[in-house]
């Protein structure tokens, strides 16, 4: 079903001038509609409550609560919703701290770290907005052990990376909203293989051998990955600690290569 903005766009030409006035307000304040009732929308847009109620029905919503639920669903799916309201730094900090507390409360990284440290090959998978997090995780894990790969590479498909998974491989999937439509199929293919799986996500309903949940909620229009980045740091450290002697040897070898290539300041 089309989202609110698409519905307004599709039916705008059929609305009365007063309904268009209210529709303009809805379109410009979508993020705020999660809390506004029809009386507030009528007052703020300068039309009657009857006009707002009629507009809601024209847009396919039974009442104001149905529209509010629709907008909440958009936000939960990761759709950016801009608001005219100014977000304070303290509100942002409170939300970030709440996400961190939620992600770290009762967090047990030992099962995931054990799988990753003991694997022959580790394949880190991420799409869309999850790709930067997957890239960061791959970079951190590559400091701790050999054989860590990233998929899909820019411009490449992923099928060839999943075709030869074995029992001694581990696939780490990073899947935050908004996941591409094919993400569930990728996850199912990994689950049907002999490889073990670790899933870093905001959606615990998705299945894997080990699921690590990280909230990405934000008071701004865009999701926040601060908690995810923190968990990635902890996970990489746990993998390093799982075989500390080998990890230290690899870190030293990487340092030697940096100096030989004069790569870093």
UniProtKB/TrEMBL annotation:
Gene3D superfamilies: Glucose-6-phosphate isomerase like protein, domain 1, Winged helix-like DNA-binding domain superfamily/Winged helix DNA-binding domain. InterPro entries: Homeodomain-like_sf, HTH_RpiR, RpiR-like, SIS_dom, SIS_dom_sf, WH-like_DNA-bd_sf. One of its GO terms (molecular function) is carbohydrate derivative binding. Pfam families: HTH_6 (PF01418), SIS (PF01380). Residues 2-78 form the HTH rpiR-type domain. One of its GO terms (biological process) is carbohydrate derivative metabolic process. This is RpiR family transcriptional regulator. It comes from Conyzicola nivalis.
